[in-house]
């Protein structure tokens, strides 16, 4: 398809009101096939002859708009009639909404100045062999739509009582919009994936009328109401109630997250489709007949996320662990909305690179995220500076410096996606970006072969942080140098897969390791021990792991690690003979632990281990999300160590597999399964008559280790036993 359409926009400013573009046309004959190609500077929703076009919500999705703007293609053959009316509403979306509660990059500020632009082309093929192309141009009209306001953080106001004039509206203006940046939809579509009904409706001590959906979700409320024209429904969203049981929104910071609907006459339904919210509770602020008239059945939560397919399942005999597994899945669903976001509710919802690299491995086990990450990594490469700089968030609306362990998403994510799905294409597409990232460090360090200097997030949220700081006390140069080594090692591995000459990077890697050992002969924190052992930087990794185990035990079997150390903590313990201790951390229920939030009713993963403290107080409203997937990374330990299913670098994509389950007496049974590109891999163990019974199903040859003994098995279902 060749674009012939012109970008159109309203010929005068409508302010916050989303324009409604319209075009009426008559088909010239019997339609054989019709396709609509469409995109917008904002979020579009198209309607052909009264019916929504496609199921894609929040289209065209979020990309590095100044370099890559996706368009979508819809088959509208069935929707076309003789006389047709095509209507398109264009809201602000990520393109033109305020993004982040603080200052954004210049590019972002420029993008926001753009008009509500629309580009559409309808290709019609007739049964008589002729064809026709209908394009956006100055023959289109525009008017005000029902959407009076819509922004990503602040919500939507929709006035259904208004009579919207279509067809005879105002003439649009064509303009010189983006053309060389247009790309065909690359990621997964964003869809309405699930519906959750309210679990209870109640009054808070303050007298607020609140509905609890029983689950924190990302999406919006579908309203069903019988009302008089002009009556209003207003809703607020929240993740938690405070310790008195009142509705709590302070942790949304400046995000208003408001839902306002002005009714038309009679029975009606409405859902805002140009914004989204992260919430478990809603407060009814206004309702026809008064808030007391609101009923549970008036509201349904519609859950929205990228159309990723579930591949991994975890379950075991401990109900709290099962809740954790469930929360990890909900954390992923709530934050895989076109890009991997840190959280879905406050004035951020950004593609934080650190969070993405921490979670990518677990993400690729839980769901098939190859396409999802392929798109996001292409944005990462597009946003990368000439000098190799990688922003804190992708799309890079912040334009800050590069931080170690955040910008390393540029090497870690492609490598994990390759291991999970076995397709070297992701490495081929990202290889330049991976090398550029390592080159950036080499050029910006103060000390050769280390990464010293720079501005980093450190071991973000580490519990050994000095008072008043978000950064754990692990040395920033230590972390930065460790990730410099790790990223370089991944460039070497990727280069070998691609049959590139990587001798330069091999030599660099050796030099980094040597410099690291010299600069950091001692480790002072749990995270430092974790990195030294996990990245094989310590001259004696066993000693680093021994030190880690002592540190964990000395403080009463507690983790002190933050974003950087936590994902590898249990791996290091179990890799070096402390499997029991790893399980102790996983099964611990008091703060700090993965299960502590479960004891406080969590239905997603929290940003802080003590988002709600023992006494019911909150962490400061400043940085307190209840849907932050990063610590859900622990799932990869459950798949890979407890269940024992591991990808092999020599056979990526589970073409062959290692299965080495590690049961623990504190659990009676555990089941792990993974739908791979080669079929289902399943590993289960349970206590049977005083022994462990294992059942392993594999679609490919597998190398199994049970209680220290190794076996090579072929495809099929195999059972093993070992002593408890
Ligand atoms: C985000 C994090 C992110 C961090 C960077 C926060 O505001 O929510 O998850 O990684 O900033 O330190």
Describe this structure in words.
The protein has 724 residues and is of the alpha+beta class. The protein has 4 domains: 7-187, Jelly Rolls; 191-306, Jelly Rolls (Sandwich), CATH 2.60.120.260; 309-642, Glycosyltransferase; 652-723, Maltose phosphorylase, domain 3 (Sandwich), CATH 2.60.420. 25% of the residues lie in helices and 30% in strands. The protein contains 15 helices and 38 strands. Strands 11, 12, 16, 17, 18, 19, 22, 23, 24 and 25 form a 10-stranded mixed beta sheet that branches. Strands 5-4-7-2-10-13 form a 6-stranded antiparallel beta sheet. Strand 4 (43-48) and strand 5 (51-52) form a beta hairpin. Helix 7 packs antiparallel against helix 8 and helix 12 runs antiparallel to helix 13. It is globular, with a radius of gyration of 27 Å. The mean pLDDT is 97. Beta-D-glucopyranose binds next to helix 4.
Secondary structure tally, helices:
15
Largest sheet features: 10 strands, mixed
- What value does the Rg take, in angstroms? 27 Å
The tally of structural domains comes to: 4
Q: Are there runs of 5+ residues with pLDDT below 50, and where?
A: none
Strand percentage, roughly?
A: 25-35%
CATH class of the largest domain: Mainly Alpha
Give the integer mean of the pLDDT values. Answer: 97
- Quaternary form: single chain
Shape: globular
Share in helix: 25-40%
Terminal residue distance: 64 Å
Kindly name the structural category. alpha+beta
Bound molecules: beta-D-glucopyranose
């Amino acid at each position: 398809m060749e674009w012939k359409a012109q970008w159109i926009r309203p010929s005068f400013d409508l302010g916050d009101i989303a324009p409604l573009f319209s075009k009426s046309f008559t088909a010239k004959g019997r339609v054989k096939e019709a396709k609509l190609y469409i995109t917008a500077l904002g979020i579009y929703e198209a309607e052909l002859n009264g019916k929504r076009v496609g199921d894609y919500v929040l289209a065209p999705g979020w990309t590095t708009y100044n370099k890559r703007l996706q368009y979508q293609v819809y088959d509208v053959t069935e929707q076309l009639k003789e006389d047709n009316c095509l209507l398109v509403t264009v809201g602000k979306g990520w393109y033109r909404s305020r993004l982040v509660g603080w200052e954004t990059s210049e590019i972002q500020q420029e993008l926001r100045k753009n008009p509500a632009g629309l580009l559409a082309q309808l290709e019609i093929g007739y049964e008589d062999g002729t064809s026709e192309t209908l394009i956006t141009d100055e023959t289109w009209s525009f008017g005000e739509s029902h959407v009076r306001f819509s922004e990503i953080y602040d919500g939507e106001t929709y006035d259904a009582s208004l009579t919207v004039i279509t067809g005879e509206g105002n003439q649009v203006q064509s303009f010189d919009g983006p053309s060389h940046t247009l790309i065909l939809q690359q990621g997964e579509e964003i869809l309405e994936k699930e519906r959750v009904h309210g679990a209870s409706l109640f009054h808070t001590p303050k007298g607020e009328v609140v509905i609890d959906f029983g689950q924190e979700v990302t999406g919006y409320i579908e309203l069903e109401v019988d009302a008089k024209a002009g009556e209003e429904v207003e809703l607020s969203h929240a993740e938690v109630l405070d310790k008195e049981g009142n509705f709590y929104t302070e942790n949304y910071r400046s995000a208003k997250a408001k839902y306002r609907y002005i009714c038309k006459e009679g029975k009606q339904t409405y859902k805002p489709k140009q914004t989204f919210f992260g919430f478990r509770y809603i407060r009814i602020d206004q309702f026809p007949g008064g808030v007391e008239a609101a009923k549970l059945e008036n509201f349904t939560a519609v859950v929205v996320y990228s159309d990723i397919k579930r591949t991994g399942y975890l379950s075991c005999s401990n109900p709290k662990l099962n809740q954790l597994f469930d929360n990890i899945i909900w954390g992923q669903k709530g934050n895989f909305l076109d890009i991997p976001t840190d959280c879905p509710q406050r004035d951020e919802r950004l593609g934080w690179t650190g969070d993405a690299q921490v979670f990518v491995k677990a993400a690729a086990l839980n769901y098939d995220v190859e396409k999802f990450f392929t798109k996001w990594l292409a944005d990462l490469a597009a946003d990368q500076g000439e000098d190799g700089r990688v922003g804190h968030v992708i799309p890079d609306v912040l334009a800050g410096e590069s931080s170690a362990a955040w910008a390393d998403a540029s090497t870690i994510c492609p490598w994990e996606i390759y291991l999970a799905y076995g397709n070297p294409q992701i490495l081929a597409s990202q290889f330049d970006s991976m090398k550029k990232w390592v080159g950036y460090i080499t050029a910006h360090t103060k000390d050769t072969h280390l990464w010293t200097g720079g501005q980093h997030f450190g071991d973000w949220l580490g519990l050994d942080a000095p008072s008043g700081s978000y950064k754990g006390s692990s040395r920033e140069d230590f972390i930065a140098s460790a990730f410099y080594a790790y990223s370089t090692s991944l460039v070497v591995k990727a280069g070998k897969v691609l049959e590139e000459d990587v001798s330069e990077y091999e030599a660099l890697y050796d030099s980094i390791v040597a410099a690291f050992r010299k600069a950091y002969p001692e480790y002072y924190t749990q995270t430092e021990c974790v990195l030294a052992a996990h990245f094989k930087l310590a001259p004696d990794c066993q000693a680093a792991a021994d030190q880690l185990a002592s540190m964990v035990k000395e403080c009463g079997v507690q983790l002190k690690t933050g974003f950087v150390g936590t994902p590898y903590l249990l791996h290091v313990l179990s890799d070096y003979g402390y499997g029991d201790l790893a399980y102790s951390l996983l099964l611990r229920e008091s703060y700090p632990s993965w299960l502590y939030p479960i004891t406080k009713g969590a239905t997603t993963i929290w940003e802080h281990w003590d988002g709600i403290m023992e006494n019911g107080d909150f962490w400061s409203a400043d940085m307190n999300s209840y849907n932050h997937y990063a610590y859900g990374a622990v799932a990869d330990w459950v798949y890979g160590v407890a269940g024992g299913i591991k990808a092999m670098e020599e056979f990526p994509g589970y073409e062959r597999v290692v299965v080495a389950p590690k049961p623990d007496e504190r659990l009676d049974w555990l089941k792990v399964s993974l739908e791979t590109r080669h079929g289902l891999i399943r590993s289960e163990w349970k206590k049977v008559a005083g022994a462990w019974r294992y059942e392993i199903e594999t679609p490919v040859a597998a190398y199994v280790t049970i209680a220290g003994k190794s076996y090579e098995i072929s495809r099929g279902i195999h059972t093993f036993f070992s002593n408890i």
